[in-house]
Amino acid sequence: MKEHARSLIKRVRDVVSDHRQRTVASDVLQMCIMAMEQLAELDQTLYDYFANAKLSLTDHDELQAGITEATFVEVHAKTFRAIRKLCSYLHASGMLRHSERPSTLDNQGFDFGDDFDLCFEEASPAGAPTLEDLEIDEIDKAFEAIADEIPDSSTMLGLFREQLGTLGGVLTQQAETFDLRIAIAIERRNFELALRELDASRQALGDGIFAMASTVFEIFGVNVERSDLVPSYKNTLEQSLELRKALSELSQLVTSENDWVIKDASMSAADVQEAIFRVADVLEQYVDGNVCKGMRAPERLELESFVRKIRKGPTEMAALACEGLAKYLESLSIVNQREVLVEHDKQVMIDIRHSLEAARSLLAISPTTARQLVKDGLSQAEKLRGRSPSLDERLDQWNECDCLSDDSHDLASTIDALDALLR
C-alpha cells in the first residue's frame, strides 16, 4: 500500500475516538485498497503468467490445457485474495444488512501486514441482499446527507455502519457471483470465457470497492479520488480511448507500409527491407509503451510475437509477418464494440450534430458564428479518433490545412462531409 493511502487512513483513525470502531474503519479501508490494487494488477498478472508459460486460450492439447487451467486457477486466487478477505470480514463482523448466511468466499487466514488489527464481532442473522436493492440514487443520497452537515462522532459512526451494511452487502454478492462464474469457466476449460469474466470482475468489483471506500472516507471527512488509493488507476473510458487511438495510429502506419511498399513488386529489395524495419520499429515502440500494457495478455503476447517474426525472419517471411500484422490490427478494431466506447461515441456524435445543425441554420445569417460552430464540431470529432480510418483521414486533412473560411459554401461542404462521416 502506498504511503499516501496510509496517510488518508490515518486521518480517519484520528477522527474516530472509539477504539473498536476505529479499528473496524481502518481494517475495512486497508482491505478495500488492497483489493483494488490486486484487481488493478490483473492485466500484468495474466501477462506474466502467459509470457512465462507460453499459454494458449485455444490449444486443445490435454497437457497444455491442464497447464493453462492451473494458471487460471492461480491467477483467479491471486486476484480475488483480498476481496475474499474483505467479504469474509464484513460477514464475520455482522455489518452486512440482512445477512443470514456466511460468505462462500475463501475465509482462510491472510496476513494483511503490520498494524492491521482485525476486529470481529458476532454476526446477526436476517435475509439475503439482492443487487437490485441498491440504486445509484441511494449512493448519491448518502453523499448528500453527509455533505449537508458536519456530523458528530455518534452520527458518523451510525452513518458508517449503515452505509457499510448496504454497500458491503451488494459488493459481497457481486464478488461471490463473479467468483463462482470464473471458477465454473475455468473448470470447464472455457478459457476465453474465464478471461472475459476476469476482465468484467475487475471493472465491476473495482467500482464497487471504491464506492464503499470513498463512502467511508467521506463519512469521516476525507475526500478521495480513485487515483489517491491506486495511483496507476485510469478509468475504463480513458483506457479504451487511449487504446483505440493508439491502435488506429499503429494500424494506419503498418497498413501504409504494407500496401504501398512491402507488397509492391516494383519496389527494390532495399526499399522493402527499409519499410520492414520501420514497421518493426514502430511496433516495438508500441509494445514497450504504457498503452500496450493495458491490453489483454494474449493480445500483448501476439504483438510481441510479430515483433520477433519481423525482426528475425528472412525478408520474405518478415514481409508475410507484416501482412499478417496489418490484418491482426484490423481485427483489434473490435475495441469499438466496448460498451463504454459505444455510449461515449453516441453522446459525442449527438453533440457534434447539434453543433452542425446550429451552424447550418446560421450560414446565411452569420457565417462567422457558423464557422465557430463548425470548428467546435471538428474539435469534438477528435474524441472519436480511431473509430474509423476515413474519419481519421479527413480530420488529419482539416487539421493540416487549417483553412476553414467564412464562405458559406465551403462551410456547408464541411458540414455535409463531417455529418456523412458520422453515419
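Next protein, fold it too.
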Amino acid sequence: MTVKNARALRWQSCASTILAAAAAAVLCGGCSVLDGPVLSPSGPISLAQRDLLFKAVAIMMIVIVPVFVMAAIFTRRYRGTNRKARYTPNFDFYWPLEIIVWGVPAAIIVWLSLHLWHYTYQLDPYKEIDPSVKPLQVQAIAQDWKWLFVYPEQNIAVVNELAMPVNTPVSIAITSDTAMNSLVIPALGGQIYAMAGMQTRLNLLADKTGTFWGRNVQYSGRGFADQQFRTLAQPPADFDAWVEKVKQSRKALDATAYDALAKPSQKVPVTYFSGVEPGLFDKIIAKYSHGDSDRAPHHVNAGTTD
C-alpha cells in the first residue's frame, strides 16, 4: 500500500467515525438522560443507589480511559507509514508495567467489593428507613397483568395506583397471585421480586412530590409490557384527601370481587375499592402454602385461612 493510499484510507475512516457520531447525536437530541428516574432520584434510597452507580463508573474509568487513550496512541505510533517506531519483537517483561497492569485492577476490585458490601446492608429493602417514624403500610399483589395495592389500616384498595405522603416511610409487603413478578419504582428505589406463596418487602420514601411510574420488570406473559402503575407522592393533606376519595367508591373488594379482578386482563384502568376482605393478603399467600393452587388459580375463600 502506498503512502497516498494509506492516507486516503485513514481519512475515510475518520469521516465515517464523524458521520456516525453526528448521526448518534441527532438521534439522541430528543433524549434527556439526566431527567431519567435513575439519574434524577426522588428519594434517599434511589439517591444512594445513584451515588453508588456514579462511584463505580468513576473508579472503573481508571482502567477504561487509559485503554482507549493507548489504543489511539498505539494506532498512530505503530502505523505502517511510521518509519521511526522501534521494532522490539523480544520484549516480554517490564516490572513497572506488570505492577500497573495487575495492581490497579486488583485495587479497583477490592474497592468495589468493600463499597458494594457496605451498600448491600445500607440499602437492604427489608431495612426500616427511619425506625423512629411509623411507616405507611401497603400490601402489593401482582396479578395478570396489573398491580393491586391494599392499604390495610385505611381499609381501601386501588388497582394500578400507589399513593403515599411525601417524607413518610412506606413499607410495602409484596406477593403474587400468578407467575413471578418484580416490582420497581425507579425514581424511589430498587426492585424486588413478587412470588406466589411468599412475602417480600420493600421500604421506600419519597422526598419530592410528583408522579412516578412503577412497573413489573419480570416477563410474565402477553400483558407484561402494559403492567405499570402510577405512584403519587403527595403532601400529607393531599394524601388524606386521596384516601377519602377512594373511600367514596361504591365498590368493595370482597372475595367475589377479588376473583373477578384476578382474572387475566390487560391495560386495566385505575380502580378504587372502599372496603377490603379481611385478611385478603394473608389468604392469597396461604392458598399456595396449603396446596390450594391446584384448584381455581385465583380463588380466595371467604372464610379464615385456618
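About the second fold: Residues 293-297, 302-306 have pLDDT under 50 and may be disordered.
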